[in-house]
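User: Hey, my collaborator sent me this sequence without any context and asked if I could get a structure. I don't really work with proteins. Can you help?
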Amino acid sequence: MSWIPGGTFLMGSDDFYPEERPVHRVTVDGFWMDQCLVTNRQFRQFVESTGYKTVAERVPDPAHYPGIDPACLMPGSLVFQMPRTRVSLRDYRAWWGYVSGACWKHTEGPESDLAGREEHPVVHIANEDAEAYALWAGKSLPTEAEWEFAARGGLEAARFVWGNDVTPEGRVMANTWQGEFPWQNLKLDGYEGTSPVRAFPPNGYGLHDMAGNVWEWTSDFYRARHPHEARKACCVPCNPRVTSVSQTHEAGLVPEPIPRKVLKGGSHLCAPNYCLRYRPAARQGQAVDTSACHIGFRCVLRGSVHE
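Assistant: No problem. I've predicted the 3D structure and written it out in structure-token form, which is a compact way to encode the shape of the chain:
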């Protein structure tokens, strides 16, 4: 783990997607953070120690899917399926498919395995799975503010975790999509799909993959925008967190049957023509019961630098 010293920083961005607004100052205390995403090897150790079954390995709860024949509810997860030709970006069903049997150890479906991918980030992780691992490890999931502060690596208001140039001196700095998403992957970064957790340079705090590779769960429930009162100079929140669905309702969101939490960091499927979200300010809401082939996590440990 790396020690993240804490401090006050500019959170969010006014330059990209609406959910990142408004930019506001936030203070976080120091904490420890995993230098890398949790890997398949580490998650396997957890499963072998506890017998844990992930959400993707369980039969979905019929109560969450009214009107659907329970016999049709099969364990599985969302898998990216690259189209052969250009498709409309308005319908994600052109590249996402629910695959029965897909889970953390069978990432493309029941016939696939993890051979050669022990040091790749574990994927097909729902929020409950990430929280279970963190509890077992004696750690926690980061808040959204902690994650963004750590991702910035000490750079004030930079566009990316390494600075403002997407490819400084022509160097690819993260595992993201090059080409026209979703049908053309030029693989200029050398990878199709996930990459080993130390394949790209760390940020200023020694953290790898704070941009791209896989999205990362945080502990915060999702609100459509940052609170506008946070713009006020007299209202710099310290260690902010959204710990309940009721806080999202107060922010004006319509209640959802399945709550969402904040994902950060983007993934290997993020591309400038569709999802320019491999930036520290970027954020996305994800249903807590949903997993996919590009969602993983890392943990934090709160305490002093001497612990």
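In plain terms: The first strand starts at residue 2 and ends at 4. You can pass these tokens on to your collaborator as they are.
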